[in-house]
Write a sequence for this structure.
């Protein structure tokens, strides 16, 4: 699994967050997507890698601007995850 953390410029409210989240869900196959206008970031959890240019284009088409993208390996956290270590 992969965690994609993006800095997004232009989000002002909860509706902006929803707009970005809906766009990402519609265009890409993702496990989870969350946005925060106060932090100015969107986090995507996905099984497969997504091309940065396609991600930027999808968000930029909605009127927001992707400033930075960071990709990290993702490991689910939580109480039961301590029993699932390999």
């Amino acid at each position: 699994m992969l965690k994609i953390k993006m800095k997004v410029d232009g989000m002002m409210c909860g509706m902006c967050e929803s707009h970005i989240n809906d766009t990402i869900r519609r265009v890409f196959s993702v496990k989870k997507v969350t946005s925060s206008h106060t932090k100015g970031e969107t986090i995507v959890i996905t099984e497969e890698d997504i091309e940065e240019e396609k991600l930027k284009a999808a968000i930029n088409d909605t009127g927001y601007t992707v400033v930075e993208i960071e990709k990290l390996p993702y490991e689910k956290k939580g109480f039961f995850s301590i029993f699932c270590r390999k």
The first strand starts at residue 2 and ends at 9. The chain is about 25% helix and 35% strand.
